[in-house]
Amino acid sequence: ISQCIALDLTGGIRAGWQRSEVRLVQSGEIGARPNHVFFTWNKWGSRDAQLNRNRINSIVVSGFPYSTNIELTPELARVKETLMQAKVKLTIAVLDNYFWWGGLYSKNMVSQFYEQFLRYVTSDPEVAVITKSKKPSILESLPNLKSLLRDAEDTGRWINLADVTTRLPSDASKISDISVGLGISSAVSEAVSQGNRGIHLDLNRMYFHPLYKWGRNQVIFDNLPRLLERLEIFKLEKHFKKKILVQMLKYYLKMN
User: Fold this and answer.
1) Three-state secondary structure readout of the chain
2) pLDDT tens column, 117-142
3) pTM, whole model, 2 decimals?
């Protein structure tokens, strides 16, 4: 704020941009974005700024700002090949959120989120998970999952990407069939912006968010067991469509 006042006095401008997906919580971040010009991903970004009484002279809807490379690094290519060799039918990018005493996400929420996916992998040999955590300390802060995590990693189908602070979530999403993010997830928005599938798991149940009108139980879920049921249906449908396409291809090749 003080910087904007100084720029007003000197005739300058301050430009800012939306860094993460908006939650549209009124009074959540009052005056947090004092900019003369503010660039947003979509119209929701401007609404969030207005709800929290930010003094912004001009709002520009410019789209998602972070570009990623769709090509695979040798590391990601090896992961993809490993899962293909394991005959995995559904690969899920699991994108968490950090927890702290004053945050939206509790330790219990994050623990339940991971636990359900760990059990999914250990119980179904056709499922794989690739995680890209926000911080390396998150899983380390959940010692109750240590044994289950070891069992999941031993399957070869639970892969925690390393160097999480220096890479984008799209490293996980671009070699997965679908991404699941905890909360109104910026990582999921990134996945979708790159042409990949993604869904939000809103355990805070922010029913006022426009995503609920747009696609409840399609792009946003408030219940983890229901989300896992839909993922299982998606896996079966994906495999069935692939099988039909292979049969059609064989038929046309035979005809020719």
Assistant:
1) CHHHHHHHHHCCCCEEECCCCCCCCCCCCCCCCCCCEEEECCHHHHHHHHHCCCCCCEEEECCCCCCCCCCCCHHHHHHHHHHHHCCCCEEEEEECCCCCCCCCCCHHHHHHHHHHHHHHHHHCCCEEEEECCCCCHHHHCCHHHHHHHHHHHHCCCEEECCCHHHCCCHHHHCCCCEEEEEECCHHHHHHHHCCCCEEEECCCCCCCCHHHHHHECCCEECCHHHHHHHHHHHHHHHHHHHHHHHHHHHHHHHHC
2) 999 999 999 999 999 998 888 988 99
3) 0.80
